[in-house]
Amino acid sequence: MSKDKIWLSSPHMGGEEIKYIHEAFDSNWVAPLGPNVNEFENEIEHYLGGNINVAALSSGTAAIHLALILLGVQKGDEVICQSFTFAASANPILYQKATPIFVDSETDTWNICPNLLEECIIDRISKGKKPKAIIAVHLYGMPFKADEIQKVALKYEIPIIEDSAEALGSSYKGKKCGLFGDVSVLSFNGNKIITTSGGGALVSKNIELVNKSIFLATQARDQAPHYEHSELGFNYRMSNICAGIGRGQMLVLDKHVNKRRDVNKFYREKFNDINGVKIHNEPSKDYFSNFWLTTVLIDESKAGFSVNDLRLAFEEHNIESRPLWKPMHLQPLYDDTNSYLNGVSESLFKNGLCLPSGSNLNKSELSRIEFVIDKVAKNKIK
Ligand SMILES: *Cc1c(COP(=O)(O)O)cnc(C)c1O
Questions:
Q1: Is the pTM of this model over 0.85?
Q2: pLDDT at 382 over 60
Q3: Most distant CA pair in the chain, distance
């Protein structure tokens, strides 16, 4: 009997999406602009709260690229980026022919370490170049140490690009992720907490920056009856069809967050009795994670099995799990990049695994997952 694949994180429709897509068809707004785009932006602004502006774009990667341009990052400039992240956080630095500088993580949130960040900035300045921006990431939905990072950024007057691609619905000290950057970035790719099939957004308190991002995302066309261009533009705007999906998804966002937190709790209880296994958790009440992905660290010497054993056992049962992000400073693409390291992300990469975490996991799928965990961890109960 072949069982359906259980994915790490798959699209989960709420039901209303199709209504907004129909509206777009009926009114022939099948374009990278239209009422769904405007409404989707308003709905995100309302959801995040605060005095904030949103531009809906074709992807999170496009949003990071535009964020760098808006902050004036040019060829030869240095940009600091969290090493422990997905490649899309860092690659737009290369699109600008700028130079990434990677900084390692701390063990509480697994995100950029504030102390190492300051060391890095001091060292870069002493070498003659002040970094132009800091890309900090709320990895797997866990908020970074926002107070400490913002303090360092303010002290050296370097703007923050907040990569909140994985953290819509998370918050820090009661404030939603997406509100902690000079420019912030969301993603609505197919595997994220809500999806528009593909899409992203740029978020900022500064409305001029957001308006400029829309200008750049629609080919940077100057005011004139003909097509006049004085700046380099891009085709990065979100389509009205995708925004329709997004509007339907906004209705179920909080439900998705609750469901992912339930899945996290399921794993926490499941692994509670097993030696050497630790589910990544919020360091204190200040942190509220959407638990986009639940992640686990396994100390093989105590557990008697490794992350690889668990991953292969899942695979045998047609269940997807995945190693944690391979740090950027270990990627062949970034071979000769300056990096400020403390060993944290390398150790996480070696001992960690992402577990199936979808908001659409049903009872029978959870029991299939449970079966595999029981099998691998058999005789390992404390
Ligand atoms: C998904 C993701 C991105 C890129 O978003 P896309 O919409 O896929 O382009 C950027 N950073 C992180 C951390 C991500 O997980």
A1: yes
A2: no
A3: 75
